[in-house]
Design goal:
CATH architecture: 3-Layer(aba) Sandwich
Number of helices: 4
Distance between the termini: 26 Å
Number of strands: 3
CATH topology: YefM-like fold
Number of domains: 1
Radius of gyration: 17 Å
Largest sheet: 3 strands, mixed
Strand content: 15-25%
Length: 71
């Protein structure tokens, strides 16, 4: 769901209920400025399942830099 910052501010309570079902993209002047998402969703569960598979010696900062360099 996409909403303007003003609408989001005015109806925060409603959007806190909606975010339980779907992500909310908040826009300002036509550009996405924020994304509201549930704290525990499929992505977090997937990462948790991968934790036991990943090598313990992984340098997360190095991995992040490598991903960013590909952009």
């Amino acid at each position: 769901m996409i909403v303007t910052a003003t609408e989001f501010k005015n109806r925060l309570g409603s959007y806190l209920e909606i975010v339980k079902q779907e992500d909310i993209y908040v826009t300002s002047h036509g550009a996405v400025t924020a994304v509201l998402t549930r704290p525990v969703d499929e992505r977090v569960r997937a990462l948790t399942r991968l934790k036991g598979i990943l090598n313990e010696d992984i340098d997360l900062d190095l991995e992040r830099q490598e991903r960013l360099s590909r952009l």
